Amino acid sequence: MSELKDETIRGVYERWAEGDFQAGGDLFDPLVLFVMGPGFPETGTYLGPERVTEYTRGFLEPWERISVEAEEIVPAGDSVFAAVRQRGTGIGSGAEVELRYFQVWSFRGDRIIRFETFRERPDALAAAGLRC
Description:
single chain, Nuclear Transport Factor 2, Chain: A, 27% helix, globular
């Protein structure tokens, strides 16, 4: 079952890398919780698919081009850990930006019930129940 979750999240990141940021939305539980952890400009908690969609729209707004890719995916029982690289070009400024961070996706059955973004790898590993 862990491998299915692993492959599911890998597929989401593959589509995000191609610019399809609606990918994964069909997997959200009606009460999905998205937590953008400390250290990010848009730190906060977003409850439900509609709020996650609103966040995503706002997140994409300042980018002319953006790619979010998983560099590493590790299954962890009902969770999946991902090391992420984000690259983009700002609208207007043309500034090139590259950022690395970490995400943990949690499942109940085949539904995503929570995903959280971390600046620090040890924090994400701990949240996924993995050793640092």
